[in-house]
Design a protein that fits this description.
This protein is an alpha/beta fold and 290 residues long. It has two domains: 158 residues, P-loop containing nucleotide triphosphate hydrolases (Rossmann fold, 3-Layer(aba) Sandwich); 116 residues, no CATH class. 44% of the residues lie in helices and 19% in strands. The longest helix has 23 residues.
Length: 290
């Protein structure tokens, strides 16, 4: 029996990284959402979906976190393997964030981390949770770092990249960033544009971004800018079919400069134009821009 109309999205990750926000976004997109579902009930749900298969299709999102017993979490890879064997479309999305961002969020909301106790204060609870969830992190189809992401941006990202994605085609995320604020943790490939001429040192361009015509004109005067853009474009275009052949659903390409305002933004916009012209599914994020 074909199960092509069944789609399951599993949302997991660190407490405070935005799992509830992601589930809410999927619910708004028409998914039936279940939070903190025990693995054994997850397996029973899969059995029920297969036996009562509906030609109209069903879309389910399930939240899983570290509050479950370790033994149950260890059963999840086998369950995912079964979904593959039954030809059920599924994706495992892992939400992550830097420790400092998680500590700040718990402080602002005054929520209690679910793993804090007499032996674990907040930092040690976060470290313990990372250790528990590491197997899920490694097997995830998509990892999203929410350290610098607002609630609105996370909702939009989940909606565009997960809920509304064509499951046949790989989703390409192009992201600009500033090295002074850290390298994106979720990037598959990172390119460094700091060797290119910096518009920051031109007083009339300092307040502008790589989206502005004045910055573009300044950068296009140096042949190295076009050369880097062409070589990044060629590299990504050449390897995309290989990733698709291996069954990858997501790929994130990040380009960084010092502050993430001029050079990296310009290059990402050029790459976006190219891959959109190739009819690729492309999302663009300029991390350091408002």
């Amino acid at each position: 029996m074909a199960q092509g109309n069944i789609k399951i999205i599993v949302i997991t990750g660190l407490s405070g990284s935005g799992k509830s926000i992601a589930l809410n976004a999927l619910e708004d997109a028409g998914y039936d959402c279940i939070d903190n579902l025990p693995i054994k009930l997850f397996a029973a749900l899969v059995d029920d979906l297969i036996q009562s298969f509906d030609e109209e299709g069903v879309r389910i999102a399930i939240g899983i976190d570290a509050r479950m017993r370790d033994a149950d979490l260890h059963d999840l890879p086998d369950l995912m393997q079964r979904l593959r064997q039954e030809h059920i479309a599924y994706e495992l999305i892992f939400l992550d964030a830097e420790d400092a961002a998680l500590i700040r969020r718990f402080g602002e909301t005054r929520r209690r981390h679910p793993l804090t106790d007499n032996q674990h204060n907040l930092p040690s609870a976060i470290a313990h949770e990372r250790e528990i969830l590491m197997p899920l992190h490694d097997m995830a189809n998509l990892r999203i770092d929410t350290s610098h992401t607002s609630l609105h941006e996370l909702r939009q990202l989940i909606r565009n990249r997960v809920a509304e994605r064509d499951t046949v085609q790989l989703s390409l995320m192009l992201e600009s960033f500033g090295f002074k604020y850290g390298v994106p943790r979720n990037a598959d490939f990172v390119f460094d544009a700091r060797c290119l001429p910096n518009p920051h040192w031109q007083p009339e361009l300092r307040a502008l971004t790589g989206r502005d015509a004045g910055v573009a004109q300044f950068l296009e005067q140096d042949h190295r800018v076009d050369l880097m853009q062409q070589q990044i474009r060629q590299f990504v275009a050449e390897w995309l079919p290989c990733f698709e052949k291996e069954g990858r659903s997501y790929l994130t390409i990040a380009v960084g400069c010092t502050g993430g305002q001029h050079r990296s933004v310009y290059l990402i916009e050029k790459l976006k134009d190219f891959f959109e012209a190739q009819e690729r599914t492309v999302l663009c994020n300029h991390r350091e821009l408002p």
